[in-house]
Model the fold of this input.
Amino acid sequence: MTWSADFLSRNRAERVLLAEWTTFRLGGPAELVHLDARDDLAEALAQPRRWLGRGANLLVGDAGVGEPVLRLGRAFAALERAVTRDGRAIVRAGAAVDLAVLIRTCTEAGLAGPEGLSGVPATVGGALRMNAGTSTCWLLDWVARVEVVLPGETAPRWLERSEMPAAYRSSGLPEGTVFLGCELELAHDDPEHLRARGASLKRAKAASQPLALPSAGCVFKNPARDLPAGKLIDELGLKGTSIGGARVSPVHANFIVNDRGATTAEVCQLIQLVRRRAWDARGVVLDMEVETWNCPAELKAHPRDLKGVAA
Ligand SMILES: Cc1cc2nc3c(=O)[nH]c(=O)nc-3n(C[C@H](O)[C@H](O)[C@H](O)COP(=O)(O)OP(=O)(O)OC[C@H]3O[C@@H](n4cnc5c(N)ncnc54)[C@H](O)[C@@H]3O)c2cc1C
Done:
Protein backbone atom coordinates (compact mmCIF):
# COMPACT_ATOMS: atom_id res chain seq x y z
CA MET A 1 0.00 0.00 0.00
CA THR A 2 1.30 3.47 -0.76
CA TRP A 3 1.25 6.02 2.00
CA SER A 4 2.25 9.66 1.58
CA ALA A 5 5.69 10.70 2.80
CA ASP A 6 4.03 12.95 5.40
CA PHE A 7 1.98 10.02 6.67
CA LEU A 8 5.07 7.82 6.99
CA SER A 9 6.96 10.57 8.83
CA ARG A 10 4.38 10.43 11.64
CA ASN A 11 3.20 6.79 11.57
CA ARG A 12 5.19 3.55 11.34
CA ALA A 13 4.47 0.84 8.76
CA GLU A 14 6.14 -2.58 8.94
CA ARG A 15 5.78 -6.09 7.50
CA VAL A 16 4.85 -8.51 10.27
CA LEU A 17 3.52 -11.99 10.85
CA LEU A 18 0.12 -11.50 12.44
CA ALA A 19 0.85 -14.59 14.55
CA GLU A 20 3.04 -12.24 16.61
CA TRP A 21 0.13 -9.84 17.16
CA THR A 22 -2.68 -12.24 18.12
CA THR A 23 -3.22 -14.19 21.34
CA PHE A 24 -3.92 -17.33 19.23
CA ARG A 25 -0.35 -16.99 17.88
CA LEU A 26 -1.78 -17.67 14.40
CA GLY A 27 -1.87 -15.70 11.18
CA GLY A 28 0.32 -15.00 8.15
CA PRO A 29 1.95 -11.83 6.85
CA ALA A 30 0.50 -8.34 6.61
CA GLU A 31 1.49 -4.69 6.60
CA LEU A 32 0.95 -3.36 10.13
CA VAL A 33 0.55 0.40 10.47
CA HIS A 34 0.84 2.06 13.88
CA LEU A 35 -1.44 5.08 13.55
CA ASP A 36 0.04 7.59 15.97
CA ALA A 37 -1.22 10.87 14.52
CA ARG A 38 -4.88 11.83 14.67
CA ASP A 39 -4.46 14.15 11.67
CA ASP A 40 -3.66 11.11 9.51
CA LEU A 41 -6.93 9.34 10.22
CA ALA A 42 -8.41 10.61 6.94
CA GLU A 43 -5.58 9.10 4.85
CA ALA A 44 -5.90 5.81 6.75
CA LEU A 45 -9.64 5.74 6.13
CA ALA A 46 -9.26 6.45 2.42
CA GLN A 47 -8.26 2.88 1.58
CA PRO A 48 -9.31 -0.68 2.36
CA ARG A 49 -7.99 -1.61 5.81
CA ARG A 50 -8.53 -3.72 8.91
CA TRP A 51 -8.32 -2.64 12.55
CA LEU A 52 -6.37 -4.49 15.20
CA GLY A 53 -6.57 -4.09 18.96
CA ARG A 54 -4.83 -6.62 21.19
CA GLY A 55 -5.66 -9.44 18.78
CA ALA A 56 -7.47 -11.37 21.54
CA ASN A 57 -10.58 -12.19 19.52
CA LEU A 58 -9.05 -12.87 16.14
CA LEU A 59 -8.36 -15.92 13.98
CA VAL A 60 -6.23 -14.88 11.02
CA GLY A 61 -5.66 -17.08 7.94
CA ASP A 62 -2.27 -18.72 7.34
CA ALA A 63 -1.86 -16.60 4.20
CA GLY A 64 -2.28 -13.39 6.20
CA VAL A 65 -4.24 -10.46 4.75
CA GLY A 66 -3.69 -8.16 1.78
CA GLU A 67 -5.10 -4.96 3.29
CA PRO A 68 -3.05 -2.84 5.69
CA VAL A 69 -3.80 -3.62 9.32
CA LEU A 70 -4.14 -0.45 11.37
CA ARG A 71 -3.42 -0.25 15.08
CA LEU A 72 -4.32 2.92 16.94
CA GLY A 73 -1.31 4.40 18.74
CA ARG A 74 -0.19 7.46 20.72
CA ALA A 75 -2.92 9.92 19.74
CA PHE A 76 -5.56 7.48 20.93
CA ALA A 77 -3.92 6.34 24.16
CA ALA A 78 -5.05 9.04 26.61
CA LEU A 79 -6.76 8.03 29.83
CA GLU A 80 -8.12 10.84 31.99
CA ARG A 81 -10.70 11.61 34.61
CA ALA A 82 -12.76 14.43 33.15
CA VAL A 83 -15.41 15.81 35.47
CA THR A 84 -17.93 14.71 38.05
CA ARG A 85 -21.58 14.83 36.97
CA ASP A 86 -24.45 14.16 39.38
CA GLY A 87 -22.04 12.51 41.83
CA ARG A 88 -20.60 10.23 39.15
CA ALA A 89 -17.12 10.42 37.69
CA ILE A 90 -16.58 10.73 33.94
CA VAL A 91 -13.50 8.85 32.72
CA ARG A 92 -12.33 9.37 29.14
CA ALA A 93 -10.34 6.53 27.53
CA GLY A 94 -8.79 6.37 24.07
CA ALA A 95 -9.29 3.22 22.02
CA ALA A 96 -5.60 2.29 22.25
CA VAL A 97 -5.68 2.09 26.06
CA ASP A 98 -5.20 -1.44 27.37
CA LEU A 99 -8.38 -2.56 29.14
CA ALA A 100 -6.32 -3.84 32.09
CA VAL A 101 -4.84 -0.35 32.56
CA LEU A 102 -8.32 1.20 32.47
CA ILE A 103 -9.56 -1.31 35.05
CA ARG A 104 -6.57 -0.75 37.34
CA THR A 105 -6.83 3.05 37.12
CA CYS A 106 -10.56 3.03 37.91
CA THR A 107 -10.12 0.54 40.75
CA GLU A 108 -7.35 2.59 42.39
CA ALA A 109 -9.55 5.71 42.10
CA GLY A 110 -12.51 3.90 43.70
CA LEU A 111 -14.61 3.99 40.52
CA ALA A 112 -16.85 0.96 40.17
CA GLY A 113 -17.82 -1.11 37.14
CA PRO A 114 -14.84 -1.86 34.90
CA GLU A 115 -13.37 -4.27 37.51
CA GLY A 116 -16.18 -6.62 36.40
CA LEU A 117 -14.15 -7.21 33.22
CA SER A 118 -10.96 -8.20 35.06
CA GLY A 119 -9.04 -10.80 33.09
CA VAL A 120 -10.55 -9.93 29.69
CA PRO A 121 -7.59 -9.21 27.37
CA ALA A 122 -8.42 -6.24 25.13
CA THR A 123 -7.81 -2.69 24.09
CA VAL A 124 -10.62 -0.25 24.82
CA GLY A 125 -11.34 -0.09 21.04
CA GLY A 126 -11.59 -3.86 20.65
CA ALA A 127 -13.71 -4.12 23.81
CA LEU A 128 -16.13 -1.45 22.53
CA ARG A 129 -16.37 -3.14 19.12
CA MET A 130 -17.06 -6.54 20.73
CA ASN A 131 -19.06 -5.17 23.68
CA ALA A 132 -16.76 -7.36 25.76
CA GLY A 133 -18.44 -8.80 28.81
CA THR A 134 -19.03 -11.63 31.19
CA SER A 135 -22.18 -13.37 32.38
CA THR A 136 -22.95 -10.38 34.64
CA CYS A 137 -21.85 -7.23 32.79
CA TRP A 138 -20.76 -5.62 29.50
CA LEU A 139 -18.32 -2.77 28.95
CA LEU A 140 -21.17 -0.77 27.40
CA ASP A 141 -23.03 -0.88 30.75
CA TRP A 142 -20.85 2.05 31.90
CA VAL A 143 -20.28 3.86 28.63
CA ALA A 144 -21.96 7.26 28.35
CA ARG A 145 -20.61 8.22 24.89
CA VAL A 146 -18.33 6.77 22.23
CA GLU A 147 -16.13 8.54 19.72
CA VAL A 148 -16.41 6.83 16.34
CA VAL A 149 -16.01 7.19 12.62
CA LEU A 150 -19.07 5.68 10.98
CA PRO A 151 -18.76 3.73 7.71
CA GLY A 152 -18.67 6.05 4.70
CA GLU A 153 -17.69 9.05 6.85
CA THR A 154 -14.24 10.53 7.46
CA ALA A 155 -14.81 12.82 10.45
CA PRO A 156 -15.00 11.50 13.99
CA ARG A 157 -18.20 12.13 15.94
CA TRP A 158 -19.48 11.42 19.44
CA LEU A 159 -22.53 9.18 19.85
CA GLU A 160 -24.57 8.88 23.02
CA ARG A 161 -24.98 5.43 24.51
CA SER A 162 -28.72 5.70 23.80
CA GLU A 163 -27.86 5.74 20.07
CA MET A 164 -26.18 2.33 20.34
CA PRO A 165 -28.59 -0.64 20.35
CA ALA A 166 -25.94 -2.78 22.06
CA ALA A 167 -26.50 -6.50 22.45
CA TYR A 168 -24.58 -9.62 23.45
CA ARG A 169 -21.09 -9.20 21.91
CA SER A 170 -22.28 -6.36 19.70
CA SER A 171 -21.95 -2.58 20.00
CA GLY A 172 -25.07 -2.25 17.85
CA LEU A 173 -23.25 0.11 15.47
CA PRO A 174 -22.84 -0.77 11.77
CA GLU A 175 -20.07 -3.10 10.56
CA GLY A 176 -17.04 -0.98 9.67
CA THR A 177 -17.48 1.56 12.48
CA VAL A 178 -14.10 2.65 13.85
CA PHE A 179 -13.94 3.19 17.62
CA LEU A 180 -11.60 5.98 18.73
CA GLY A 181 -12.50 6.17 22.42
CA CYS A 182 -15.25 6.53 24.97
CA GLU A 183 -16.43 8.23 28.11
CA LEU A 184 -17.45 6.05 31.04
CA GLU A 185 -19.80 7.25 33.76
CA LEU A 186 -18.89 5.55 37.02
CA ALA A 187 -20.16 5.49 40.59
CA HIS A 188 -17.84 5.64 43.62
CA ASP A 189 -17.04 2.60 45.74
CA ASP A 190 -14.39 1.41 48.16
CA PRO A 191 -11.14 0.65 46.21
CA GLU A 192 -10.41 -2.30 48.51
CA HIS A 193 -13.79 -3.83 47.69
CA LEU A 194 -13.24 -3.29 43.94
CA ARG A 195 -9.73 -4.79 44.11
CA ALA A 196 -11.06 -7.87 45.89
CA ARG A 197 -13.85 -8.28 43.32
CA GLY A 198 -11.41 -8.00 40.37
CA ALA A 199 -8.99 -10.46 41.95
CA SER A 200 -11.76 -12.96 42.60
CA LEU A 201 -12.96 -12.74 38.97
CA LYS A 202 -9.40 -13.31 37.73
CA ARG A 203 -9.03 -16.36 40.00
CA ALA A 204 -12.30 -17.78 38.66
CA LYS A 205 -11.07 -17.34 35.08
CA ALA A 206 -7.72 -18.94 35.87
CA ALA A 207 -9.53 -21.94 37.38
CA SER A 208 -11.93 -22.44 34.46
CA GLN A 209 -10.00 -21.36 31.35
CA PRO A 210 -6.85 -22.73 29.65
CA LEU A 211 -4.85 -19.53 30.13
CA ALA A 212 -1.43 -21.18 29.71
CA LEU A 213 -2.04 -21.96 26.02
CA PRO A 214 -2.60 -19.60 23.07
CA SER A 215 -6.27 -19.09 22.20
CA ALA A 216 -8.74 -16.36 21.28
CA GLY A 217 -11.07 -17.00 24.20
CA CYS A 218 -14.53 -18.41 23.51
CA VAL A 219 -14.82 -19.50 19.89
CA PHE A 220 -18.63 -19.56 19.69
CA LYS A 221 -21.39 -17.30 20.94
CA ASN A 222 -23.70 -18.90 23.47
CA PRO A 223 -26.70 -20.11 21.43
CA ALA A 224 -29.08 -19.07 24.23
CA ARG A 225 -28.83 -17.52 27.67
CA ASP A 226 -29.51 -20.91 29.29
CA LEU A 227 -27.33 -22.84 26.82
CA PRO A 228 -23.64 -21.92 27.09
CA ALA A 229 -21.73 -23.14 24.03
CA GLY A 230 -19.08 -24.70 26.28
CA LYS A 231 -21.64 -26.84 28.10
CA LEU A 232 -23.12 -28.02 24.80
CA ILE A 233 -19.70 -28.94 23.34
CA ASP A 234 -18.80 -30.74 26.56
CA GLU A 235 -22.08 -32.72 26.43
CA LEU A 236 -21.24 -33.73 22.84
CA GLY A 237 -18.09 -35.38 24.20
CA LEU A 238 -15.79 -33.15 22.17
CA LYS A 239 -13.47 -31.94 24.95
CA GLY A 240 -9.90 -32.86 24.00
CA THR A 241 -10.74 -33.53 20.31
CA SER A 242 -7.85 -32.40 18.15
CA ILE A 243 -6.90 -31.85 14.53
CA GLY A 244 -3.16 -31.37 14.04
CA GLY A 245 -2.03 -28.92 16.72
CA ALA A 246 -5.51 -27.52 17.35
CA ARG A 247 -7.44 -28.93 20.29
CA VAL A 248 -10.83 -28.39 21.94
CA SER A 249 -9.61 -27.47 25.41
CA PRO A 250 -10.14 -30.18 28.02
CA VAL A 251 -10.47 -27.32 30.55
CA HIS A 252 -13.17 -25.22 28.82
CA ALA A 253 -14.91 -26.73 25.78
CA ASN A 254 -15.65 -23.35 24.14
CA PHE A 255 -11.91 -22.65 23.87
CA ILE A 256 -9.82 -24.07 21.04
CA VAL A 257 -6.17 -23.96 21.97
CA ASN A 258 -3.08 -23.87 19.79
CA ASP A 259 -1.12 -26.41 21.78
CA ARG A 260 1.33 -27.94 19.31
CA GLY A 261 2.12 -25.39 16.62
CA ALA A 262 -1.31 -25.46 15.00
CA THR A 263 -2.11 -23.82 11.69
CA THR A 264 -5.20 -21.71 11.14
CA ALA A 265 -6.37 -24.31 8.60
CA GLU A 266 -6.39 -26.93 11.39
CA VAL A 267 -8.30 -24.64 13.76
CA CYS A 268 -10.88 -23.99 11.02
CA GLN A 269 -11.35 -27.73 10.40
CA LEU A 270 -11.87 -28.28 14.12
CA ILE A 271 -14.39 -25.42 14.29
CA GLN A 272 -16.31 -27.01 11.41
CA LEU A 273 -16.30 -30.38 13.13
CA VAL A 274 -17.74 -28.89 16.32
CA ARG A 275 -20.41 -26.88 14.45
CA ARG A 276 -21.43 -29.90 12.40
CA ARG A 277 -21.74 -32.12 15.50
CA ALA A 278 -23.79 -29.49 17.37
CA TRP A 279 -26.17 -29.29 14.42
CA ASP A 280 -26.42 -33.06 13.73
CA ALA A 281 -26.79 -34.10 17.38
CA ARG A 282 -28.79 -31.22 18.84
CA GLY A 283 -30.05 -29.08 15.94
CA VAL A 284 -28.12 -26.10 17.33
CA VAL A 285 -26.35 -23.55 15.14
CA LEU A 286 -23.13 -22.35 16.74
CA ASP A 287 -22.25 -18.85 15.52
CA MET A 288 -18.71 -17.55 15.70
CA GLU A 289 -17.74 -15.18 18.50
CA VAL A 290 -14.13 -15.04 17.29
CA GLU A 291 -13.65 -12.68 14.35
CA THR A 292 -12.04 -14.32 11.32
CA TRP A 293 -9.78 -12.72 8.74
CA ASN A 294 -9.17 -14.52 5.47
CA CYS A 295 -10.48 -17.86 6.76
CA PRO A 296 -12.84 -20.17 4.81
CA ALA A 297 -16.26 -18.54 4.31
CA GLU A 298 -17.79 -21.85 5.41
CA LEU A 299 -17.09 -20.90 9.03
CA LYS A 300 -20.08 -18.57 8.81
CA ALA A 301 -22.27 -20.85 6.68
CA HIS A 302 -25.13 -22.87 8.10
CA PRO A 303 -23.58 -26.03 9.63
CA ARG A 304 -25.82 -28.37 7.60
CA ASP A 305 -23.95 -27.10 4.51
CA LEU A 306 -20.49 -27.88 5.87
CA LYS A 307 -18.59 -30.36 3.76
CA GLY A 308 -15.60 -32.56 4.46
CA VAL A 309 -16.24 -32.78 8.19
CA ALA A 310 -15.96 -35.99 10.15
CA ALA A 311 -19.40 -36.97 11.49
C1 LIG B 1 -7.95 -15.92 27.41
C2 LIG B 1 -9.05 -15.07 26.84
C3 LIG B 1 -10.18 -14.81 27.60
C4 LIG B 1 -11.22 -14.02 27.08
N1 LIG B 1 -12.30 -13.77 27.85
C5 LIG B 1 -13.30 -12.97 27.37
C6 LIG B 1 -14.43 -12.65 28.18
O1 LIG B 1 -14.56 -13.06 29.33
N2 LIG B 1 -15.37 -11.83 27.63
C7 LIG B 1 -15.26 -11.32 26.37
O2 LIG B 1 -16.13 -10.56 25.93
N3 LIG B 1 -14.20 -11.62 25.58
C8 LIG B 1 -13.22 -12.42 26.05
N4 LIG B 1 -12.16 -12.74 25.26
C9 LIG B 1 -12.10 -12.19 23.88
C10 LIG B 1 -11.44 -10.79 23.80
O3 LIG B 1 -10.77 -10.51 25.00
C11 LIG B 1 -12.49 -9.71 23.54
O4 LIG B 1 -13.28 -9.98 22.41
C12 LIG B 1 -11.85 -8.32 23.37
O5 LIG B 1 -12.88 -7.35 23.30
C13 LIG B 1 -10.97 -8.22 22.13
O6 LIG B 1 -10.36 -6.96 22.14
P1 LIG B 1 -9.06 -6.70 21.24
O7 LIG B 1 -8.57 -5.33 21.50
O8 LIG B 1 -8.07 -7.79 21.44
O9 LIG B 1 -9.70 -6.78 19.79
P2 LIG B 1 -9.11 -7.56 18.52
O10 LIG B 1 -9.13 -9.02 18.79
O11 LIG B 1 -7.82 -6.96 18.10
O12 LIG B 1 -10.23 -7.22 17.45
C14 LIG B 1 -11.52 -7.78 17.57
C15 LIG B 1 -12.43 -7.12 16.52
O13 LIG B 1 -12.54 -5.74 16.80
C16 LIG B 1 -12.08 -4.95 15.70
N5 LIG B 1 -11.42 -3.78 16.28
C17 LIG B 1 -10.37 -3.73 17.13
N6 LIG B 1 -10.11 -2.45 17.46
C18 LIG B 1 -11.01 -1.69 16.81
C19 LIG B 1 -11.27 -0.28 16.73
N7 LIG B 1 -10.54 0.61 17.42
N8 LIG B 1 -12.31 0.14 15.95
C20 LIG B 1 -13.06 -0.76 15.24
N9 LIG B 1 -12.86 -2.07 15.26
C21 LIG B 1 -11.86 -2.54 16.05
C22 LIG B 1 -11.14 -5.87 14.93
O14 LIG B 1 -11.07 -5.48 13.56
C23 LIG B 1 -11.85 -7.20 15.10
O15 LIG B 1 -12.91 -7.29 14.20
C24 LIG B 1 -11.11 -13.51 25.76
C25 LIG B 1 -9.96 -13.76 24.99
C26 LIG B 1 -8.94 -14.54 25.52
C27 LIG B 1 -7.70 -14.79 24.68
